[in-house]
Amino acid sequence: MMDVIVRNNVKIIGKGDQTIIFAHGFGCDQNMWRFITPAFEENFQIILFDYVGSGKSDLSAYKSEKYNTLHGYVQDLLDIIEFFNLNEIIFVGHSISSMIGMLASIKRPEYFKKLVMIGPSPCYLNDGAYQGGFELSDITELLDMMEMNFSGWASYLAPIAMKNPEVPRLSQELEQTFIAANPVIAREFAEVTFLSDYRDDLVKATVPSLIMQCSDDSIVPIEIGEFLHIHLKNSTLILMEAKGHYPHISHPEETIRCIKGFL
C-alpha cells in the first residue's frame, strides 16, 4: 500500500486519547480547519488530511477511474484510519465529506463513534418534491464554466458559496483555494459531488450523527437538514445562525460550540 501519509498529506496535532478526523469539502484543503482545531487540541488527537487532488496531496495518486464516485475517497479515508489503527473516532466532515464519512461508517461502523456533518447534502439535484438546490442545467453550466474558464468559475462561485459579503476577504480566500486546485481534477471532483445521490444510503447509517445546517446556505437549502434528520436514525439537527456554506471559516465560534455541545 502506498504511503497514505504522503498521498493524503496527513498531519497529526493535539493531545488526547480520543481521535477526531477533520475532512474538508470540495475545492478546499485541510487549511480550512485552522480556526476550529485550536479549540480541540488540548483534549483530542486531531488528524487532518487532503483528499487526493486537493491541497498538498500527491497528485500522481489521482486516477479518474478510482475517483469517479465517492467510494474512491471513502477508501482513502478508511486507509488513513487503518494506517493508524484507529477505532471509535469522531469524524467531522464539511459538505460532501459528510457523505464520504457516512459511507465509510456504513462500511466499517466500528471505526466511528460519532459523525459531525457541516452543511451536508445527500443529493444536490432537484428531483420532484425533493429540492436539492440545483437543476441539472445549473450543474452542467457550472462544469462547463470550470472547463472553459477555471479562474472565472472560482471568482463567480466563491462569494455565492461563502455568502458573507460584509467580510470580503473570506470570499477572496475561498477563491484562492479554488484556483490553487488542479483544474482537471477539480472538475471531476465537482461532477462526482454535484451529481451524486446517496439518499438511499441514509437508512444504512447507524453511527450517531450531528447535522449542522446553516440558516442561509446557497449550496444546501434549509430543507435538506430536515430531510437528513428524518432519514438518518440517531441524528441530531442544529439550525445554525451562520450564513453561507463555510461556517467553520465565517462563524468559527458558533461552529465550535455546536460540535462541543454534541460531543
From TrEMBL:
Record's keyword terms, sorted: Hydrolase
Keyword Hydrolase: yes
Positions of the AB hydrolase-1 domain: 19-252
Highest taxon of the lineage: Bacteria
Record carries keyword Hydrolase: yes
Gene Ontology molecular function: hydrolase activity
Pfam hit, one: Abhydrolase_1
Gene3D superfamilies associated with the record: alpha/beta hydrolase (3.40.50.1820)
The family this protein is said to belong to: Belongs to the AB hydrolase superfamily.
Name of the protein in question: Alpha/beta fold hydrolase
Organism: Lysinibacillus xylanilyticus
